[in-house]
Amino acid sequence: MMAQVLAAVIFVAMFLLIVSDKIERHIVTLVCGLLTLVLVFGVAMQSMPAVIETLNVKSIFTLQFWYAAGSAEESTSGINWATIIFILGMMIMVEGMAKAGFFRWLCMKLAKAVNYKPIPLFVTFMIMSAILAMFIDSITVILFLAAVTVELAKLLKIDPVPMILSEIFCANLGGSATMCGDPPNIIIGTSLGYSFGDFLTNTGLMAGVSLILIIVYFYLVYRKELISENAMTVDASTMPDPKEAITDKKEFIISSIIFACAVVMLVTHAQTGLTVAFIGAVVAIVTLLTAGKYAVELLKKVDYKTVLFFIGLFVVVGGLEQTGILEIIAGFIGKVSGGNTILMLAIIIWVSAIASAFVDNIPFAATMIPVIKSLAMTQGVDLETLAWTLSMGTDIGGSATPIGASANVVGTSVAAKNGYIIGWGKYCKTAAPATIIVVAVSMVIIFVRYC
Amino acid sequence: MGKQVIISIGREFGSGGHEIGEKLAERLGFKFYDRKMLDELAETKNISIEYLEKYDEKPKRWFGSRTVGAHTNSMEEIVAEMQFEYIQEKADSGESFVIVGRCSEAVLKGHEGLISIFILGNRQEKLERVKERYQLGDQEALAKMKRHDYKRKQYHNRHADGKWGDSRTYDLCINSSHLGVEKTVDILQKYVEERM
Question: Residue A71: what pLDDT?
């Protein structure tokens, strides 16, 4: 009982501190993780096995961690090292691509391809945002896309805000389509043993249908601005040349090949048996080896704070798991829904979406995974269905407000620094209804397909 | 152009720090930067001045914004960063100036020509000044003073390493209540001229 209370208090304190944004979030999770190890496992439970199981270091040294024949990957509790290694590997690869000018080149190339016309540009950037976010983190996607959008908007004399808001939404939507698109999906996939293909055929389908609707929605919402702006004609020769974005041709080609290989490895990993941890490690090593003297520079640019944030977070969630609190929550959800699967799924998708709109969706998803595991065991609901429901709820819910997801923060920050202020009202006016539409559509697809 | 001098003035609300800074700038023939730098920022960034003023020298609210790496969507933080950049640009341009608030002593820390000053005051004198200036009663004036000082402190300590009002943060701290505005300016002018 004491262990449960301590674990819950530490968890709630961690969440409040993350939301308040006063202390950097990796410090919050690391200190709370340390408190979990000392107070919950040490003082209250006096259980060394709980510490060992939560730290989960042993799993890294198993063959299954790197190569898993069949689709089953890691499914232990505690620190999810597969997620951490994968994210770290992708960060290094993305740094290499950014340094070579890949993202800026891609944005400029596509803008040129549509002759810098606002409506085609608007639609193309939305689709590009969604597709890129399927494979790389949404922060990087939006960082480059928003910067180029502002630059182009200034040259084209249009308001970049409608474009930035729709790009942010599509980055979050694209991230929900694959296992590696959004951190909650990576955690769900590695914890429950689902593959890239599993996500693509389930959450990917929902994201694809939603993307079509969302393009229409944003077009209707912003058509007035876009149509009036569309009347402007631009001399393409006065616009920046995409080639100028490439800082080093050799590096550009190498980073593009590494990215293509990473995509192929991810898409086929269920067939090849290579785990995401393996893929992450390989892309990182190859990027560093080919970077030569810039390898140290790339390593320095990696966001280690996010990696530390994950480690601390997994320990705190491990505390909740070991003390059985998450089973109590699962039991409560089961009781409220009265064994009705449809009601249970509706509760999970909407609660996840609403929570993710206001708090970081990563800790929320990490906490909910053991809950849905327990629900599947005790209530007999299909675990896969619960996983896709949780994934869509957490990934899409984050789009509703400016603080819901990292891409929203980066996009609104880039816009504000360039003089385009996007407050809560402006943001939520279009993003909140879009979020509701996508969550509702996903829920209907889940009901029709799985119930 | 002579040696560059940048005078950074931190101040308690009601201490007359702003007026002292303005007079000091006038006597030394320096430019004076205060809240009005927002006008220039509003023009260059094409943002409404009311919007910038709303978030000027304010601490970040506890809810409603988030930080991701080096990016934040807190308007208080964005306005602060815009001003820090502005101050840095002015300092890099080589001009001599007096600047009030905005963590300038921390932003320009290590700058060769920087002289950092903090102006405080006795509670009663500050209260009288606030009452007169804003036409307020005792309670309202006191509440206003407390509110502003609290916000300045929060804002400063979020962005700077040294603590707001801590003598170790500044080259010189002076209580303006003892000598009044004019004589405090005299003392400060002498001090600055000695350092020039």
Answer: 47
Find chain B residues with C-beta within 8 A of A360's C-beta.
66
The DSSP symbol for B163 reads: P
pLDDT at B1: 52
The sign of the CA dihedral A397, A315, A375, A446 is: positive
Could you tell me the CA-to-CA distances from A221 to A165, A225, A392, A431, B36 in Å, in that order?
Answer: 11, 9, 23, 11, 37
Domain boundaries, chain B: 6-195
Nearest CA in chain A to B79: A417
Taking only the tens place, the pLDDT of each residue in A306-347 is 899 999 999 998 998 888 888 888 888 888 888 899 999 999
Cβ neighbours around B147 below 10 Å, total: 11
Residue A233: predicted pLDDT: 67
Q: What's the DSSP call for residue B32?
A: E
Interface test with A, best of B44, B66, B83, B85 (most A CBs within 10 A): B66
The 10s digit of each residue's pLDDT in B90-149 is 999 999 999 999 999 999 998 999 999 999 999 999 999 999 999 999 999 999 999 999
Which of these CATH numbers, 3.60.110.10, 3.40.50.410, 3.30.70.380, 3.40.50.300, describes B6-195? 3.40.50.300
Put simply, the answer to whether A20 touches B63 (Cβ < 8 Å) is: yes
pLDDT of residue A69: 58
Q: How far is B123 from chain A (nearest CA, A)?
A: 31
Segment A103-158, tens digit of pLDDT:
999 999 999 999 888 899 999 999 999 999 999 999 999 999 999 999 988 888 88
**Mean pLDDT, rounded, for A54-82:** 76
